[in-house]
Amino acid sequence: MHCPFCRHTDSRVVDSRVQEEGTVIRRRRQCPECGRRFGTMETATLSVIKRSGATEPFSRDKVISGVRKACQGRPVSEDELQRLAQQVEESIRSLGQAEVDAHEVGLAILEPLRCLDEVAYLRFASVYQAFDSLDDFQAAITLLRTERDAATPAGMP
Fold it and tell me: Are strands 37-43 and 55-57 parallel, antiparallel or unpaired?
């Protein structure tokens, strides 16, 4: 790390703090040459490999943008979208890989979206899983109903 003031090639860490739920480390550093202090922030990078083979940094904003389209006209708040994007990022990071396929990101979106709003889930799944016919929609709806009925105790509506 170069000192931003004198460009000396070394610095020592004076203090470290974890921020943003453990995803960022903020460090206070001091230059041994000029004695001035400066701060750095370190994050573990997470890259997404697209179908084309190109790699780009993971972006919560892109997750929110894609899910927002599926949630258009649905009673879903911005806070809920933010929480969903955080869940997706945590899920992807828990895989323990520095690079993940875009397909994995899509899979990580499906479950939290289904819990958030079933209609938005169907919209997203229809595009993500390339539904070709009404039968694809019917199969997805049947699966949703079966899982919901299995989760509902007997005698409850």
Answer: unpaired
What average pLDDT does this structure show over 38-67? 92
What proportions of the chain, in percent to the nearest 5, are helix, strand and coil? 45, 20, 35
C-beta separation of 113 from 122 below 8 A: no
Q: How far apart are CA 152 and CA 50, in angstroms?
A: 38
Distance from C-alpha of 22 to C-alpha of 20, rounded to nearest angstrom: 6
Instruction: Please tell me the predicted confidence (pLDDT) of residue 155.
Output: 53
Phi and psi angles of residue 13, each rounded to the nearest 5 degrees, phi first: -80, 125
Q: Which element (helix H / strand E) includes 89?
A: helix 78-93
pLDDT tens readout for residues 93-107: 888 888 999 989 998
CB 73 within 8 A of CB 123: no
Q: Of all residues in the chain, what percent carry a pLDDT higher than 70?
A: 96
